[in-house]
Amino acid sequence: MIQVGVNGYGTIGKRVADAIRAQPDMAVAGVAKTSPNFEAKVALERGYPLYAVDGERTDAFAEAGFDLTGTVDELVAESDVVVDATPAGIGAANADLYREHDTPAIFQGGEDPDVAEVSFNARASYEAARGADTVRVVSCNTTGLSRLFAPLTEEYGIEKARVTLVRRGGDPGQTDRGPINDTLPDPVEIPSHHGPDLNTVFPDLDVDTMGMKVPATLMHTHSVNVTLASEADAESVRALLEAESRLFVLPPELDIDGAGKLKEFAQDAGRPRGDCWENCVWGDSITVEGRDLYLFQAIHQEADVVPENVDAVRAVADTADREESTTLTEDALGLDG
Ligand code: NAD
């Protein structure tokens, strides 16, 4: 059993902990939190040993009636691998802690690429991460685009990709985010940071990205145009994408017009927290004009990086190859496209 510590138990950390626990070859060594809030309560109810990040704040946990197992230093010492799911920028500050304990660490997409040896996407860069001491699971958007561009690159080659990312203003719990009544170019600069981030996974990819932010919390939506390097037609592209386990090509008969119905579908299907771990590609949007491919996809920002973190654990522990790991992950989660 790979003992996995989760440092930072928020939107991503709590989902990763549950996904780790579902794996046959992994166990949650514990989760570390800064504050004794509702997520700490649920962590204890789920049976995760709770560790305080700041030793001076242990009293606050005691006053709230939350039993602590120890401090984050002890959690890192006891873990074979740590998943750092702290807010952007804090992961880099934690890197020394992991290094001191010689514990391999998985960082998240909010960190700069140089926090880790490898920018990780299970479909595109698993093998490069095997046995690494540090990897960074790329952001939700970069994960979604990596999953799409990997098979397109292999099958047709990509001459040039252009993506407009219509981004949710904040996650549902982020009451301090916005906009609440506007449509913002964000960032205004072109390309947005997503293109260069994609190049950390696909160094040779010619891609331009533009970002926007809108008053929505549920998902991001990508408008994608790819000039393929060789001839294709919509049917063959669709078949290629349908064969990818982490791409869900939405058939028209489901009558899903947006993120609201996607989340509803996931909830009705019994997905934990209504999570969509896969990219959701509108099948009817897959269009090819000459060598130009067009499509829309939705990305559930809270969820798509979760299976990637699980695979990253096996990659750094070097206990499985890509095929074995992704199959194990998907079987354990019930991720069946
Ligand atoms: P979050 O704010 O929901 O959760 C972070 C958790 O870490 C919170 O519980 C916070 O209290 C805790 N924390 C704060 N300081 C800490 C510290 N020093 N040590 C340990 N824990 C600490 O953030 P999130 O959305 O889960 O994001 C985590 C990382 O994942 C970021 O790098 C982010 O960019 C990335 N990410 C987020 C999303 C998303 O849409 N939410 C998607 C993909 C990647």
Q: What can you see in these coordinates?
A:
The chain is an alpha/beta fold. The chain has two domains: 2-138 and 305-333, NAD(P)-binding Rossmann-like Domain (Rossmann fold), CATH 3.40.50.720; 140-299, 2-Layer Sandwich (Dihydrodipicolinate Reductase, domain 2), CATH 3.30.360. It has twelve helices and 16 strands. It has helices at 11-21, 38-45, 58-63, 72-78, 90-100, 122-129, 140-155, 194-201, 234-242, 259-268, 305-317, 322-333; strands spanning 2-7, 26-33, 50-52, 70-71, 81-84, 105-107, 118-120, 134-137, 158-168, 184-185, 207-214, 220-228, 247-250, 279-282, 287-289, 292-299. The chain has an eight-stranded parallel beta sheet with strand order 4-3-2-1-5-6-8-7, sandwiched between helices. Strands 9, 10, 11, 12, 13, 14, 15 and 16 form an eight-stranded mixed beta sheet that branches. Strand 13 (247-250), helix 10 and strand 14 (279-282) form a beta-alpha-beta unit. Helix 1 (11-21) crosses helix 11 and helix 7 packs across helix 8 (194-201). The two termini are 27 Å apart. The relative contact order is 0.15.
Write the layout of secondary structure elements.
Elements: E1 2-7, H1 11-21, E2 26-33, H2 38-45, E3 50-52, H3 58-63, E4 70-71, H4 72-78, E5 81-84, H5 90-100, E6 105-107, E7 118-120, H6 122-129, E8 134-137, H7 140-155, E9 158-168, E10 184-185, H8 194-201, E11 207-214, E12 220-228, H9 234-242, E13 247-250, H10 259-268, E14 279-282, E15 287-289, E16 292-299, H11 305-317, H12 322-333
Parallel strand pairs: 1-2, 1-5, 2-3, 3-4, 5-6, 6-8, 7-8, 9-11, 13-14
Antiparallel strand pairs: 9-12, 10-11, 12-16, 14-16, 15-16
Helix pairs in contact: 1-11, 6-11, 7-8, 11-12
Bound molecules: nicotinamide-adenine-dinucleotide.
